[in-house]
Amino acid sequence: MTEQATWTMEQTATGSKTKQVVFIGVLTLFTITAAALLYTNEPEFILDRFVGLTELEYTYFDSILYVSYLIAGILTATLSDRIAKRQIFIAVGSAGSAVFYWLMTTTLVYPVLLAFRFGQGWFTVMAWQSLMTLVLDYSEFGERGKHMGIFGVFLALAMGIGPMLGGFMAAVGIFMPYYAASALSSIVFLLALIGVHDSEIIKTRPSLAQSLSITKNNPKLVVPGIFNFIDRLHMGFILTALPLFLLQVLDLSESLRGMALGLFAVPFIVLQYPMGRLSDKYGRYRQLILGSLAYGVILMMLGYVGSFGFSSLLVILLLLGLFSGVTAPPSMALVGDCVRREDSAMAMGFFNFLGNLGFIMGPVVLGVLLLYADFVIAFVVAGLLELISLAVNVAIIKGKFKESIR
Fold first, then answer.
1. What dihedral angle (degrees, nearest 10) is formed by the CA atoms of 233, 80, 179, 255?
2. Tell me, what's the pLDDT at 104?
3. Going by C-beta distance under 8 Å and a sequence separation of 6 or more, which residues neighbour residue 180?
4. Which whole-number Å values give the CA distances from 263 to 33, 132, 150, 256, 260, in the listed order?
5. What is the dihedral of CA 176, 182, 187, 188, to 10 degrees?
6. How many CA atoms lie within 13 A of 156 on its CB side?
7. Cα–chain-centroid distance for residue 103?
8. What whole-number distance in Å separates Cα of residue 321 and Cα of residue 382?
9. pLDDT in tens, 89-111
10. 309 — alpha (psi -120 to 50), left (phi > 0) or beta?
11. Closest Cα to residue 91, out of 76, 105, 104, 106?
12. Which of 370, 83, 390 lies closest to 244 in space, CA to CA?
């Protein structure tokens, strides 16, 4: 075979993989948009329907979601590696999500609502974690950042348009975001059956014991895991705190609350692809450290600056989105750098396990802080947690793994 023919085949394969990654990104867009539609009108959906709940009990709605993420994420990863399949988890996850989004509109008993929320989260994480893993399946070392950047664009776009659309829908009817989420999940189910193909690279079927020993065999996974833990903690914290802050402090409508959450995602969307490519070229750590440092400092200012008005709050949210966009693609790509491709599902499962643990803690940290302090103090504490976790990760990188920061 000539060199030209070999180059042509490699380019064709690369183009085919990129198209599949884009298709996976579209399914992720629908999946995460469905979940994000619900955040804007949570105060009305919960507090107005279940009178007498405390602010701590209010946070259970999101905390139980993240508990389901935690459990379902690790089980999905283990089974996915065991049978070397992703499509079935995407299809089943999206179908189950569609059912539970609808069920949440049918009850006026809060514990039952929490049970339905748990079910929705279980199936949602089954779908989106499998989509994320499939991106790694299709990625070689030199293109992981690029592919995760493409994936991140769709993920961030969903996080941006979901709350905005949810705000407008909630103004029409309190259940409209939930009906729309069910419809979007149904579309993902159909598209997954038609267009998702498992990577031919993933042939091995490791045992359960091998899957669960992923961090023992690949200790460097702890670094992206810690970054993801604290990032998701803040995501859970912000997604629960911000609608409440916008209602109680600034007295904003559902549509303006949705706009605020959407604008938070704008720079995050724009930076996904270029930051992914940049991490492929210059390394992961420098971006992660600089981005996390700036994010922590700015997050500490959100409660104080945001209390001056909506425009001041939007400036802080845009800056947070900017530095969040700097860190997301390299942290996801770093997972693939640490393991063999056949272990990618379990590696991503561990990554998301710590992330989901952070998700659980975010609303709980908020609820506890609001029992004793106001929003200003709550956001200061959240920012300090970012800086402390960053210091721990830098110590691990330079101490345990003796690596330079690049």
1. 30
2. 96
3. 34, 37, 165, 166, 169
4. 15, 24, 20, 10, 5
5. 130
6. 26
7. 23
8. 16
9. 999 999 999 999 999 999 999 99
10. left
11. 76
12. 370
Q: How many C-alpha atoms does 115 have within 13 Å on its Cβ side? A: 8
Measured distance CA(24)–CA(33) in Å, rounded: 14
Distance CA 29, CA 21 (A): 12
SS (H, E, C) 189-214: HHHHHHHCCCCCCCCCCCCHHHHHCH
Domains and their CATH numbers in the chain: 10-202+212-399 (1.20.1250.20)
Give, rounded to a whole angstrom, the gap between the first and last alpha carbons of the chain: 39
Helix orientation angle between 285-306 and 310-338, rounded to the nearest 10 degrees: 160
pLDDT given at position 383? 94
pLDDT tens digits for range 161-176: 888 899 889 989 999 9
pLDDT at 269 over 80: no
The answer to whether residues 221 and 211 touch, using CB atoms and an 8 Å cutoff, is no
Alpha carbon separation from 265 to 31, 294, 323 (Å, rounded): 16, 16, 11
Specify the pTM: 0.73
Number of H helices, E strands in the chain: 15, 0
- The residue behind tokens 């549509």 is 255
Query: What is each CA distance from 389 to 325, 355, 399, 401, in whole angstroms?
Result: 18, 13, 15, 17
Give the three-state DSSP class for 229.
Answer: helix
Could you give the angle at the alpha carbon of 378 between the alpha carbons of 366 and 294, nearest 5°?
Answer: 110
Token readout for 315 is 């400036």
